[in-house]
């Protein structure tokens, strides 16, 4: 397989359109048409990860954290990140990053963290992300079922726990085929009026291109009339953080111990409004989650587990009546690497390993 094919498979898991504007996901170093021998999945671009890749013979390095965040005015090969960029080029590595797009993706970083902590029913999202589209296509009556099925297979028509959601309105369409046209019904050169169905559905913006292609392929017309436009709302299961229930109520200190034991890193209790509380709803967010404290406090969560909480984050959380545990940036993101590797292995035909570097 080629670098661009592996990249496309990653993007089906972590759609680039879910990334923040300030982020820089995607292929950062390498030739899109370079063959790939094997993939190494790691958290952060570090010299020891590149050492590991050389030992394993991996040449596609899939990182969560980007090696290049913004535009480079120069590449200083004596210091980070220029030293790793130069080394990657010399070694023939492809460097790819799936960052905030993987954070916000269905089954992304916080889902893996909730699983690692044993939270149950962790489907509620702390901060939704992503955009929605309305897709409208005009179809002859006999083709409605096939076009609707193709749209559903492409991921359109999901509303809550329901799939295959569409709405149909009957009407009349007109067309006049040009000299080189081959109309599905009627004759070219003559104004035709045909009975058609306006078929409409919703689709996440990141799936709109795929849904459009699927509907067009299933449509019998040469030139289907199709519109895609933005609507309010967020795609299902897309966003930062998840809220779930521990198997049994926990005190704040018991929660801290559970987090430490589950992740294998020491966790800090930075906000503890009442040590006697029995916590039954916990929000988790992998990575640096201080900016989401107010979102969590506005939910039904009683406690918040994330990374990079500073002194003032702790004060804010406590003032809002929220137990807060800082489990560390890397510790809260590392559980997501194994699921990413497993999902990628389902669609690529090269060996995939997860790095042993734990930072």
Question: Could you give a quick summary of the protein structure above?
Answer:
The chain has 12 helices and 15 strands.
What does this protein look like?
By secondary structure, the protein is of the alpha/beta class. The protein has three domains: 117 residues, NIF3 (NGG1p interacting factor 3)-like (Udp-n-acetylmuramoylalanyl-d-glutamate--2,6- Diaminopimelate Ligase, Chain: A, domain 1, 3-Layer(aba) Sandwich); 109 residues, Udp-n-acetylmuramoylalanyl-d-glutamate--2,6- Diaminopimelate Ligase, Chain: A, domain 1, CATH 3.40.1390; 100 residues, Alpha-Beta Plaits (2-Layer Sandwich). The protein is built from twelve helices and 15 strands. The strands form three sheets. A six-stranded mixed sheet has the order 5-10-12-13-14-11, with helices on both faces. The chain is globular, with a radius of gyration of 24 Å. The two termini are 29 Å apart. The model has no long low-confidence stretch (mean pLDDT 97).
């Amino acid at each position: 397989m080629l670098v661009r094919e592996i990249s496309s498979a990653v993007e089906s898991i972590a759609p680039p359109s879910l990334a923040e504007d300030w982020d820089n996901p995607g292929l950062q170093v390498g030739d899109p048409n370079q063959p790939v021998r094997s993939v190494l999945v790691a958290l952060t671009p570090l010299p020891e990860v590149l050492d590991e890749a050389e030992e394993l013979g991996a040449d596609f390095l899939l990182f969560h954290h980007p090696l290049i965040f913004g535009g480079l005015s120069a590449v200083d090969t004596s210091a980070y990140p220029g030293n790793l960029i130069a080394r990657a080029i010399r070694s023939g590595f492809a460097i790819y990053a799936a960052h905030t797009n993987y954070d916000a993706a269905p089954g992304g970083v916080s889902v893996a963290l909730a699983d690692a902590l044993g939270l149950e029913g962790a489907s509620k999202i702390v901060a939704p992300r992503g955009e929605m589209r309305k897709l409208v296509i005009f179809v002859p009556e006999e083709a409605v079922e096939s076009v609707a099925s193709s749209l559903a297979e492409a991921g359109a028509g999901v509303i809550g726990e329901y799939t295959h959601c569409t709405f149909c309105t009957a009407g009349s369409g007109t067309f006049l085929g040009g000299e080189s046209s081959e109309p599905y019904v009627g004759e070219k050169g003559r104004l035709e009026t045909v009975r058609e169905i306006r078929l409409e559905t919703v689709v996440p913006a990141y799936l709109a291109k795929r849904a459009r292609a699927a509907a067009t392929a299933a449509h019998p017309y040469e030139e289907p009339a199709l519109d895609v436009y933005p609507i309010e709302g967020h795609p299902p299961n897309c966003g930062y953080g998840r809220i779930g229930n521990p198997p049994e109520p926990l005190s704040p200190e018991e929660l801290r111990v559970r987090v430490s034991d589950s992740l294998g890193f020491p966790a800090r209790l930075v906000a503890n409004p009442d040590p006697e509380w029995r916590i039954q709803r916990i929000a988790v967010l992998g990575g640096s989650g201080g900016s989401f404290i107010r979102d969590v406090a506005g939910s039904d969560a009683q406690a918040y587990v994330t990374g990079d909480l500073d002194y003032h984050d702790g004060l804010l959380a406590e003032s809002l009546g929220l137990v807060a545990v800082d489990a560390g940036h890397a510790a809260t993101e590392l559980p997501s690497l194994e699921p990413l590797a497993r999902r990628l292995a389902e669609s690529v035909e090269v060996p995939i390993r997860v790095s042993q570097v734990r930072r």
